[in-house]
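Moderator note: this is an archived Q&A kept for reference. The question asked for a predicted structure of one protein chain; the sequence and the answer are reproduced below.
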Amino acid sequence: MREGSEGGRRIPYWVEGTTPAQVARRMKVTIPARASDLRAAYQRGFQDDGVLLAFTLPKADTKAFIHKLAPESPLLHRNAPVTTGKGQSPTTPFAHLGLKEPGTLADVTEGPVCTACEGDLNWLNIAVHPVDAQHDQVYLTGAV
């Protein structure tokens, strides 16, 4: 993402006051009723804007949530963290929400939900990491 300015602000920047409900609407996702610890962010970018949504979900609900998203292909499971080299960081980091990056975690199931989404959503990815024996952390990231 290139840096620029918009109304005196440097791009990219985080839009303050963004709610999980707002981000879910942009992602065209329904937040499950039993989701807890909802966190969301909207990052205004030079070309695309980034959207983040994260929540904790009972394991019993995770499979149904993923099924409703209807991923284009099966999600992949990886046992080890992703190593990308030095100095690289995601353009829409979950650290902004006080969470670890899914790529830094082991035992993650992830993949694209849609690579050419409809409407103003350009793409949407999911990552799921077990929090404990009963809960998963769900990470959704996309571009609008």
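Archived answer notes: The chain has one domain: 4-82+92-143.
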